[in-house]
Structures are given as structure tokens and as C-alpha cells.
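Wait, can you check?
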Amino acid sequence: MHGVNTVYRVYTGNTVYRVHCGNRVNCVNAAGAAGRVKVKVERYDPYGGQRSFINLVCYRLMQEDPELEAVPHQQLTIQGGPGFEASRFMAIAADMAPDVYTWLVFHDLRSYSRQGFFVPLNEFIGHDTDGDGYISDAEAIWDDWKRIPEYYRRVATVDGKIYGIPNLSMGMASLVYRKDLLRKAGVDAERAPRDWDELFRILQQLTRPEARIPGAPVQRGQHGIALEAQGWQFCSWIWAGGGEVVLQGKTNPRTGKTHWWPQEEAAFADPETGESLSREPTQWRATFGGEGGLRALGFLRKMRFDPWTRHRETGDPVDLTDEDIERGFRALPGRGRYEFTPEETIRGVGRRGATRGGRVVSGREDVAGLEAEGGAGRRPPPHRALADRVDAASADGAGDRAHRGLEVLPARARERHGVPGLQDHRALQLGRR
């Protein structure tokens, strides 16, 4: 939402929207001759049917109030120009922004509200009467606010002002795998790996760079895992490694001591005195360079670069060092010397992005094998590239397609904020805690 002047209508129930404009004249003209109030909604497609949750909300609101007309917001675009975030700022500067934003991450909400782009919703939800910076159940006048977990309510609140309604549809960051390929590789598909070392061994057994996959638009063999250049995915590995991406600290004014909590903390009880420090200013500290982050980075590097080979007689993976590769053999304890050729050396266990024009290309662009194929090639259609989401494709396409998730969301976050686990997927946290 943008603007600060005129408020026309409020809808309560499962969803709250504050309809307003920064320019009163534009709002009045938008009402039209029939007296209908037109509201520009981000990501609304009147012809998109029920495929979008935003469409369903707009349809329902227009049914409940015939005077409301939801209209789609046309995003500003420039050929070869700035991305989505810059287009939003241009629309705000030109007084062409939507009346209702439907997708904002929490740091955007804070940045936008502090620049005066949003108006608070407190008069419809509740006021911070005790001055702790948040709206408690006792302060809420909108009953559905009490149904939202406290952590998410805090995310939507800035200095006691509520600027948005949390969208509680969430995704789980997990590893999913094909049971039929595990069985084919001789791995117990019903037991999750105990730690990263065992996971790496399983990925080695699944990796067959020489394999040809029938129907694949680009032949690049079979690899144990897809490794994409997506920074946000690194967070899950940090948590699985026992670390934190950021910590938030509160200083007890009475003792002068600063205590640190994970990013999902909401209570802020002083571990020494039991006092609540929730009203104290928050200090943020980036900790992804800590022990958990370094452990995660080391494992990702291992999956990407560590050399190994497959024993010609037993089929077991044999880890190698650069010295082993240079001399052409590996000394196996109790088994003598195992010799191999440079062509038998395998690097890593993951299919990774290629480099094109100096840019790292994601595996989803389906070009990762082009360099090995000897040069450029035509990019396959998008529907073929979608197959990259499941990396280790079976040769015959048959078998058990059931997936099983390895949960990497910290257990304390689920328990504290009511987030369900992945019991249906036989979840296992991959941390070394």
C-alpha cells in the first residue's frame, strides 16, 4: 500500500486490506460514475481464474461489496532495465504504485514503512498501549490477529505500527530424493543418512557422469544432487550445520550485559535474571561466517570440487587428493595400491551451473553440460528445463517416485511458532549438533 491521505474502506475477516490513495483527486476520479471504488492490487489477474490466491481474495471481496472493483496493477518495465525492486520504486515516485501490495519480504516492509510509503493498520487491528513495540492479544481488536503466531506478528510490526498482514503460506527447505534410484544404487531407501559424511557417500553412489539419460536434451550424466547458485539456499545448510545466519541481541539496562538470540526469538527473557528484554532496542549481528557457516561452506565445496574415483572391481567410491591424482594411484589401507587414470577421476557429486559470457548460469537453464559437449547449443524449451529440479533422473523413467524430505528447518523454530514438521516425509535434520 502507498500514500497517506484518504482511506476508503476496510475489509476484516480472514484478510485485512486498507484501501487508500496518496492523491485524493485520483482516488475520487477512480471511483467512476457508478460510484465503484477501484483498487489497484499487485499480482492480481482478473483473467487468471482460481490459480492465484490473490485472485480468489479479490473475487470474494468484490462479491461481498459490489461497490469495490479490484483492478490489476501494471508494473513499470524498461527493456533491459532495472529489476522488480527498482520498478516498484519508480512506480511510487511516479504516483503509479498499487493500492495494495501482496508480496513483501520483512526487510522491504521495514524499509518502505520508514520511508513513508505505507500507512499503519493499527486502527483496525489494535494499538500498542503498553509501549513494548508490538500488539499483544490483549491489545488486539481484530480477533484474527490473535491467530497469527507471535513471531510473524512481530515481523509485520515496526515500532508499534502494523504495516501488513503476514502471509502464513510457507515452504519448507528440504532435500528430496528418488527412492527408486537409491535402491538401484544399493542404498537403503527407507533410512535417512545420519550425517553429512553418510550423505556424501550416498551422493557418490548416485553419481554416474558417464551415464546417458534417454530423453535428456543435454547429456551430462547422472549426479547425486543439483547445486544451484541461489544464495538463499545457503541459509538452510548453515542451520543444518548448527549455525545461525544472524543473531539479535538485547542489552539489559540494569546489568549492562548483552545477550544474543536466534532470528526467530520473540520472548527475549534474560537468561541470567529472567527479565523480559523485549522492549529494549535490537542489535543485529551477521553470524554466517561462524562455525556452522564454515562447516556448511566446506561441505558445499566438497560436493562441488572434491576428487574421487570409482573402484573398478568393487564399485566403491575412493576419495582422492591432488597428490593422488598427480601420481596416479591411491594407497588403500590393507588393500595395497589402487591405480587409476586421469579419465577416471570424478570431481564432486553435484550437477552445477556452467559459465556463459562470464556469468554463472543456473542448472535450471539447462546449459550445464554444453561446455562438455564441445560448445554452444540451443537452449531447450522451459518445460524440459523443469526436469532439472529432480537431478538424478532414472534411465527408464519407471520406479517408485515417492520422495522423502530431510528437514533443515531448526526444530526450535517449529516448536516455538507452531510450524509443522515433515512427519509425512520422514523428516531428519541434517545438523551435527
